[in-house]
Design brief:
Strand order of the largest sheet: 1-2-3
CATH class: Mainly Alpha
Structural class: mainly alpha
Number of helices: 19
Shape: globular
CATH topology: Growth Hormone, Chain: A
Number of strands: 3
């Protein structure tokens, strides 16, 4: 209880709540076509490969939009960027309600839904910007728990689509987005942690090797999370012959697990280090993915999905405990880039699974390929993290005891300059 009070007093809880709500509702909008996939598939008589393409377009589009929004937020402020984005989301949803009536229009709508997927870097930087470095992982975990928007979409969208038609869900969603928009306007405050730098300085993380190591890690953790989230409803319908609403309920159970463990991952990353936490969750996720290739029963499959989502969610939290330690000044920029590349991993997974099922009659090949990629990234992480613990982060990935800022190959602190060995 005392530590909770210290955490809340160290920052600005209303802004953290506004960031969570912003990310939560945006995430729900982002995956709408995914959770409504069986309805859209039935409406336009789509093949499984067409369905995989359709549910992956919002993920791909959102990934491409994340970095530009992160750059914009550095100039107009994160709160203003969030308000602008939510306003555009509402306009996009109104368009979907009135004008989407064909498969090609659904694909175009997928691009517009990608606007919601751009919220990631801004939401996490806004939510954690008021908190000191020893609480960054927890604050980012709470803001990032907006992944639970996937569960909201999976819970309500199939029921609304069944009752009113899937096009009408866009209209309902537009009304719901007013809540996080108003909370952001009236309760959030721009964090004081921004420093004005040139665009070139902000973009420096694009050419640094560490940025691309983080990208690969996030391809597995977040890419796996969003990819499974968008395809899971279709998977349950095609694999087990469920109704669309039943499939949505099973999707809720799995995705909620991953959303909750994001906070846990951030907490443990603060305590034992992000690198240690990532190593553990990677091993758990890999075990779960290999288990899915055996095409187990419905009960075992659901347990394995929950295990995978728990690991991937915790991995997301652990990753973004490390990001503000590596890029303390340009967290939103670095987070936008890492989130952008990571989300591209999510656009790959539904297509890999759809092709595997349609051409081999089983999803096994898709699970094997993604598990193999996860093994490669884990090995890379274990190798490169050795240099991290000699420069900008402590053992296991914990925050350094002093107030350090990493710049290139140096750790600059109040006690002098320590040159990396």
């Amino acid at each position: 209880m005392a530590s909770t009070k210290l955490f809340l007093k160290s920052g600005h809880p209303p802004t953290l709540f506004a960031a969570f709500l912003y990310f939560d509702f945006s995430f729900a909008i982002w995956v709408l076509n995914g959770v409504m996939g069986p309805f859209i598939k039935e409406s336009f008589h789509l093949s499984l490969v067409q369905t995989g393409l359709m549910v992956s377009i919002p993920t791909f589009a959102g990934a491409l939009m994340r970095f530009p929004l992160g750059v914009l937020s550095q100039y107009i402020g994160r709160k203003s960027a969030a308000i602008l984005e939510m306003s555009l989301i509402i306009v996009a949803l109104i368009y979907g309600y009135f004008f989407v009536h064909s498969f090609n229009q659904v694909l175009a709508m997928g691009v517009l839904l990608g606007i919601a997927g751009a919220s990631f870097g801004v939401a996490l930087s806004l939510g954690s910007g008021w908190f000191p470095k020893q609480y960054k992982g927890l604050a980012m975990g709470i803001a990032g728990a907006g992944n639970s928007g996937t569960a909201l979409a999976a819970l309500f969208a199939p029921r609304l689509a069944m009752a009113f038609g899937w096009q009408h869900v866009y209209g309902f969603a537009a009304g719901c987005m007013l809540l996080p928009l108003l909370v952001m306007i009236f309760f959030a405050k721009e964090p004081p942690d921004a420093e004005h730098q040139s665009l070139g300085q902000h973009l420096k993380c694009l050419i640094e090797p560490d940025g691309w190591y983080f990208n690969l890690v996030y391809v597995i953790t977040f890419g796996g999370f969003i990819g499974l989230s968008t395809f899971l409803t279709t998977f349950y319908v095609t694999q087990f012959g469920m109704t669309k609403v039943q499939a949505g309920m099973y999707t809720v159970a799995a995705t909620l697990t991953g959303s909750a463990t994001r906070v846990v991952g951030g907490y443990f990353a603060d305590k034992v280090g992000g690198i240690t936490t990532l190593a553990v969750v990677f091993l758990v996720a890999i075990a779960g993915l290999f288990g899915l290739m055996a095409t187990p029963s419905l009960t075992v499959t659901t347990i394995l999905f929950m295990l995978c989502f728990a690991a991937l969610g915790a991995g997301n939290g652990a990753t973004f405990q490390l990001v503000p330690l590596r890029w303390p000044v340009t967290t939103a920029i670095a987070g936008g880039m890492i989130g952008e590349i990571g989300a591209l991993g999510g656009s790959i997974l539904p297509n890999v699974l759809a092709y595997s099922k349609q051409h081999t009659g089983s999803y096994a090949t898709g699970w094997i390929e993604y598990a193999g990629l996860a093994c490669f990234v884990l090995g890379l992480l274990l190798v490169v993290s050795r240099s991290w613990t000699k420069t900008w982060v402590g053992p296991g990935g914990r925050a350094l005891a002093n107030d350090a800022t990493f710049e290139g190959e140096e750790v600059v602190s109040g006690e002098g300059v320590l040159i990396a060995s």
